[in-house]
Amino acid sequence: MPARAPRESLVQPKNKRLTEDHAVTESEAEDPNPRATKRRKIETPRKPRRVVATQETAVADTSVTRSRRAPRQSDAVEVADDGHDSPVPEPTSKPERRSARRNSTAPHDPGNGAVKELQKSLLQKEMSLKRDRQTLEGETKQLDKREKALQKKELAFERSVLQLEEKTTAVKDREQAARKRELGLKTQETEIEKRTSELRKREQEVSDRAVVAKMIRTEEFLAELEAKWQCALCCDVMAHPYSLSPAGCGHIYCSLCILKWFFTNLCDGCGGWCKILECPLCRTALVKIPGAIPRPMYSLPFTPARAADERITEMIDILRGPVPAGPSKPSGIKGGKEFVFVITDMNVPYIAMFCPRIALQILTTVEDERRCVVWWPVGRN
């Protein structure tokens, strides 16, 4: 049998444990951790709740419970004996200690139920926290995606802003260039207006000069017509001039006037020209007209004066001005082939009434420009 230890040696470690527990409770009171406060509230009853506090700290894995030491077998015996003033029993054998430990843990069933409820609540909270974390992670991912999309949109917006700025600068440059062009065009318009005004003044001066020159020229033409191209029989400007035979004198008269003069010299007795005809101006004897028919070409007393006709028509056209477009002139009047008057008994009564170009019924019986076939002056019966 082992010797018993003195009672003082058993009481001293008990007092030491009490002091240590008191120090731990004071440190837990000073600690602001809520879990420590829960543990302290649970540990207020000494006998049953000291074991509950150890189980709670083992489940929660806090720093304070890890630092504390695990309860010993001797501690359980001392806690069970705490609060009784009975003398300290003598140490017994090992089976007695185990029974004492079982007896100390047996009456703590309500504390274990509270621990289980706390564990369930903690597990539920952990699950809820995990769910919250998952939801937060999903929300953070969505927020990251939104941020990336917003960044892309911001970049696109900045690019569009830069493009708009470039376009605005280009438009401003174009506007400036257009304004410069407008100024240049305005200056050109002013110059053109000045030139047009100068040209109008010059045109007016030229037109005035042309009018003056035309008036002078008309006066000259009129003077020339009156002086050179006036018929001696009618005292007017010659119309379709004809000249007497160049072998005689070559004076020029109007065709109608010379025809009248020629047919007025017919003889009433013989019906021909038995007398010698003379020029009305210079009294030069003309070629004697033979009586046999057909008469030869050289016996014709007059011929058309083409040079005089062209000059007279030119001056008249200049004085008259431009003629509007109309029907073409009949052939033989001007610029046509050579022709000869063929006088018959049908047109003799109308000689004094109409223009010789129309009334005498000019017939183109000329084969060559300078050769006349025949002419038939018909006398009165």
TrEMBL record:
Residue ranges, annotated region (Disordered): 1-117
Biased amino acid composition, Basic and acidic residues: 81-98
Example of a GO MF term: zinc ion binding
Domain of life: Eukaryota
Keyword Chaperone: no
Domain RING-type: 231-283
Compositionally biased residues, Polar residues: 54-65
The keyword Transit peptide is annotated on this UniProt entry: no
UniProtKB keywords: Metal-binding, Zinc, Zinc-finger
Protein's UniProt name: RING-type domain-containing protein
Native organism: Rhodofomes roseus
